[in-house]
Amino acid sequence: MKTTLLKSEDYTRSPWKNGGGIFTDIADAHRADAQAQDWDSLLWRFASTPIVAPGPFSYMPGIDRLQMVVGGRGLVLKSPSQDFDEREPFTTVRFTGEMEIVTELEAGPVEVVNLMARRGAAEIELLALREPGERPLSAGTHLVYAVSGDCSIRLNSEDIVIPAGSTLKVELTVASTLALVSGLAVLASIQLVG
């Protein structure tokens, strides 16, 4: 097991693919053989971003996306085939990067987290940790993001405090157990395929 604390002051910023806003990049991985770390070489990415005005989502062919509102409320994603209801915070929605999506804000700006992965390269899961309790973690990469205020967890038998806005990156070669002790966190899990 390897753990790394990713501090909020070390996060990087990058523009949305369509240029409509700015991501706060928390963690990502790219193909090892890639000449440049860009959208084409992306394996997975975990990022946060404000959505301050209605508008279209970026077109991201070959990318699977999970999204969750972590600040504000009232977000609905509209596509020609279905709507994705994120009006209540900490609700996870899953959609593909090919979908034509436009945001609708019913109660002002929101802050969201996004977990994206190259289809076929990784399996991803995104969920809120709001109540103390244990949950199993499979082998893979897990990101525990302290959404608001410090967050206390127990990983195997080790107690760890994650400062507000920071993220604990946990890389596991075997299954493990994570317990939320106190606070509020978002857990992003990535399992590379093959």
From TrEMBL:
Gene3D superfamilies: Jelly Rolls. It holds the Pfam family HutD. This is Environmental stress-induced protein Ves. InterPro entries: RmlC-like_jellyroll, RmlC_Cupin_sf, Uncharacterised_HutD/Ves.
